[in-house]
Amino acid sequence: MSDIRGAEIIVRGIVQGVGFRPFVWRLAQRLGLFGEVRNAGDAVFIHAGGTREALAGFVSALREEAPVLSRVETITAHPVAPPEGDGFRIVESGAGAVSIGIVPDIATCPACRAEIADPAARRFGYAFTNCTDCGPRFSIVRGLPYDRARTTMQDFPLCDACRAEYEDPQDRRFHAQPIACPTCGPLLRWTSLAPLPDAKRDDADALSQAVAALSAGGIIAVKGIGGFHIACDATDGTVVSELRRRKHRPSKPL
Ligand SMILES: [Zn+2]
Ligand SMILES: [Zn+2]
Question: Residue 153 C-alpha to ligand 1 middle, in angstroms?
Answer without folding.
Answer: 17
